[in-house]
From TrEMBL:
This is NADH-quinone oxidoreductase subunit N. It is a multi-pass membrane protein. It catalyses: a quinone + NADH + 5 H(+)(in) = a quinol + NAD(+) + 4 H(+)(out). GO terms for cellular component: endomembrane system; plasma membrane. The chain crosses the membrane at residues 25-43, 63-84, 91-111, 149-170, 190-213, 225-246, 258-277, 314-332, 352-374, 386-407, 427-450. The keyword Lyase does not apply. NDH-1 shuttles electrons from NADH, via FMN and iron-sulfur (Fe-S) centers, to quinones in the respiratory chain. The immediate electron acceptor for the enzyme in this species is believed to be a menaquinone. Couples the redox reaction to proton translocation (for every two electrons transferred, four hydrogen ions are translocated across the cytoplasmic membrane), and thus conserves the redox energy in a proton gradient.
Amino acid sequence: MNLLIAITGLGVLCLMFEIFNLRKALVPLVILGLLGALALDISEYDAIIKSNNNMITVNNFSVAFSGLFIILTIFLVALSHNFYEKHQTKISDYIAIKVFMLAGCVALVSFQNLAMFFLGIEVLSISLYILAASNRLNAKSNEAGMKYFLMGSFASGVLLFGICLIYGAIGSFDMAVIEEAGMSAAVEEWFYIGIILVSIGLLFKIAAVPFHFWAPDVYQGAPALTTATMSTIGKVTAMAAFFKLATVMNVNLPEAQSVIVVVSMLSMTVGNIMALRQANVKRMLAFSGVSHAGFLLMTLLGNDNPPATLLYYSASYALAGIAAFSVILYVCKNRDNEDIVNFNGLGKSNPLLAAILTGALLSMAGIPVFAGFFAKLMLFGQVISAGHIALVIVAVVNSIISVGYYFKLILAMYTKEANEARPGTPVLLYATAIISLSLNIAMGLFPSVVLDLLT
């Protein structure tokens, strides 16, 4: 609870900077504030704290994922300095929205009550709706914001209807009562219907097939930094909340695992096949995110410390995403689109950023030395031990397919001639790209540092 209060206070402070015209100090002070929040989060490790009538429970799961969310938000705030340089009068609003969004993310891994869960997911969703439509003079941004708002509102309605059915069946929002009901054979039938509806709402949030149709258009139309936010912290948060709900509910539905296997297979296959056809980098990464949603869903099937595997995979994917989007922001600045042709010759004109983008894409594809390889290796081992060999075969085939579209971008950087020189060396952008990829490589070399957090 202390972490939520601190983050919310930092968000209010961001708005105060606008009042006192301290915009130049905004980014460094917010980063310092987030580092303080990270220290506060670390101080609660190995403690179990229940507060507000068991609405929120702090444990190692919530502390580990909250730490990841704070680190990702620090990177996103750092990228904001260069991205919003033409909108200095609104930068405090944009950063404040990201900080408030972080509060929703923390609530989604700390909840012990479905009311707090819904509050967290709405804070996250509303922040992303606003950010998606934040470029109000751009028709594509307006379209992306409206499309995401309408589809997201529908998903939230389905999710809320599911929560109502669960409450109607057992008379409580408390997760401990729900866990007991999930193991009972005497619970009302609409309890299971409620769980199915809640699951559908969350599958929409993580853009898993067949609830992924909004992602390509929204990712392409939204401002690039908003796309980075949705594809990293947005997706990872929704998956962490889904994992927590799935493990607590522990429902006696024999078909549940079969459904997860089918959705996972479809997400990986549809995402990768559609990504092969894309010429726009943001749209390609949208379909890549759909395929990674399939891999993330596989963590629900593991039987050997799946929370640690989910944390490791989420961190490796999100850090690679931050590194990739840092380069995309640099290359596509002041351009009308994010097509692959914009990256032609980047290996010659800017070898450092080309190497960073290559490393990020190789991590997403699951190539050693990067953390993405070890994340998939551990995930496949757990799923095989759980008896889902066919799913692992499909996952391996899809990992090979993904190399095709990632290398399409890599080849454009190193084999094509540059379109034009790209002046300027934005320090925060370079620092974010280098640090995020370095953390990804460090996770690959020392995976136990992250895995031991949830042992």
